[in-house]
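note to self: dont lose this again. the chain is below, predicted strucutre after it. 253 aa total, dont forget to put it in the shared folder this time
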Amino acid sequence: MRVSAASASCSRWITPPTSAGFGIKSLLEDGPSIPRMRFFEQVESGPPQASIRMATNLAICLARGRATLIDMVLKFTVSYLEDSLAVLRYYKTLGERAMDQVADEHLFAMLDDEANSIAIIVKHMTGNMRSRWTDFLTTDGEKPDRNRDSEFVDPPSTREALLKDWEAGWARVFSAIEPLTDEDLARTVTIRGEAHSVMQAINRQLAHYPHHVGQIVLLAKHFARDHWQSLSVPRNKSADFNRRVSAGEASQR
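---
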């Protein structure tokens, strides 16, 4: 299950797994304005800080009527644009689920002097998003005011500021792609003066953003250590996952 939220303050996909742990059951079931949800009845122990953060976000959004519960499953489609948007949303969610599992200080920690922190990766991604997707069809994707080198230093100093930039960046991506039609895919756009079809420009970012989300996941898993909650198929659970997908109990996306 996923939680889709439709306001600025609850705009992220909030995805607390059933094993997210401490605090979820009481926040969702004990508050008078929070609906009872049977799929959270199995509450296991997990990292308290991440669990409380996810549970609190979820409870607030539900209580304010700004979130609804929906299934997010792989949808069969032959539409390039529809599937591109689905893949991008999947990786946005994956990055958020990873960042939710680490303490604030780990967002800014570097493994060595040459490494990038999660916060630096996010700053670079959002800088790229602003440049590539602002006036996507009518201006070059490398904007004159972009300073790419600056994206690798001095990231936002708090989780809240970092996620605000993250949301703004992804909003630009989706607002640029969602209005497109199949006829637009053959149109020409430029990036650093090089001509791309719209399809090529989208593919370029479909490779770029998951690459960096993978880095975020790797760093988050390193810092979460034995508190890590798997974002895909848990170790030694492949056969069970295959069975659940075949039975329609789980989805591969």
